[in-house]
Amino acid sequence: MSPEPTRIQRRNRRAILDAALAVFSQHGFRGATLDQIAAEAGLSKPNLLYYFPSKEAIHETLLAGLLETWLAPLRALDAEGEPVEELLGYVRRKLAMSRDFPCESRLFANEILQGAPRIMPALEGELKSLVDEKAEVIAGWAAAGRIADIDPYHLIFSIWALTQHYADFDVQVRAVLGTGRGDPFEGADRYLVTLFTRMLRP
């Protein structure tokens, strides 16, 4: 049985993962280096390698934790709830994630753009199973006339696209809006709730 990590070891491991998230989300997996991650974490490269044997190991650890975070908002969609409110809640949870976890969103996007070499089994397994389950719920609501007749998979894809855009293209959003428009997420929340309310009404 391995000994419990010390407080310093837990702190250093967390610092490495936080630094790696920043570096990977900016440079992608291929562009990131262990030297960059170590410098961002304030550690030497040998010290970093004490905790993680490779760049791949750090990346895989981040992705494993990210997937569960990413699935949580969809898991919370309640089949027993009021359909439009449940779906609007999902939109809002996804938008809040883009606001609160922009680096995580860009890390995920970079992995997908590279063909998902390290996360494909999870996409084809856990993610697909959850989406299939919730798509069946949404299709049931549509069949019962409780929401508009809409393709549940493309509805979910649209929610992903319209919320994660604000994290993945944050620089573009803020440049186009300019400095006088305030927090883009407040306007996005109002717009997306209006858009999806109108789309989903039977």
UniProtKB/TrEMBL annotation:
<dbReference type="GO" id="GO:0045892">
    <property type="term" value="P:negative regulation of DNA-templated transcription"/>
</dbReference>
<dbReference type="GO" id="GO:0000976">
    <property type="term" value="F:transcription cis-regulatory region binding"/>
</dbReference>
<dbReference type="InterPro" id="IPR050109">
    <property type="entry name" value="HTH-type_TetR-like_transc_reg"/>
</dbReference>
<dbReference type="InterPro" id="IPR036271">
    <property type="entry name" value="Tet_transcr_reg_TetR-rel_C_sf"/>
</dbReference>
<dbReference type="InterPro" id="IPR009057">
    <property type="entry name" value="Homeodomain-like_sf"/>
</dbReference>
<dbReference type="InterPro" id="IPR013573">
    <property type="entry name" value="Tscrpt_reg_YcdC_C"/>
</dbReference>
<dbReference type="GO" id="GO:0003700">
    <property type="term" value="F:DNA-binding transcription factor activity"/>
</dbReference>
<dbReference type="Pfam" id="PF00440">
    <property type="entry name" value="TetR_N"/>
</dbReference>
<protein>
    <submittedName>
        <fullName>TetR family transcriptional regulator</fullName>
    </submittedName>
</protein>
<keyword id="KW-0238">DNA-binding</keyword>
<feature type="DNA-binding region" description="H-T-H motif">
    <location>
        <begin position="33"/>
        <end position="52"/>
    </location>
</feature>
<dbReference type="Pfam" id="PF08362">
    <property type="entry name" value="TetR_C_3"/>
</dbReference>
<dbReference type="InterPro" id="IPR001647">
    <property type="entry name" value="HTH_TetR"/>
</dbReference>
<feature type="domain" description="HTH tetR-type">
    <location>
        <begin position="10"/>
        <end position="70"/>
    </location>
</feature>
